[in-house]
Amino acid sequence: LRFYIIESGDIEITKKSLNKIKFKNIFLIFLKKEKRPNNCKAIRIGSEIAYSDKNNQYFLEFDADGAYDPLGIKDALTKIEKHNFVIASKYNKKSKINRKFVRRLYSYMYTFICRVIFNNNVTDYSTSFKMYDRFTMKLYLNNQMIYKGAPQHLDNILNLIVNNNIIPYEIPMVYRDRIHGKSGINFRELLYCMFEFLKCINFYLGKSK
Question: Does pTM surpass 0.90?
Answer without folding.
Answer: no
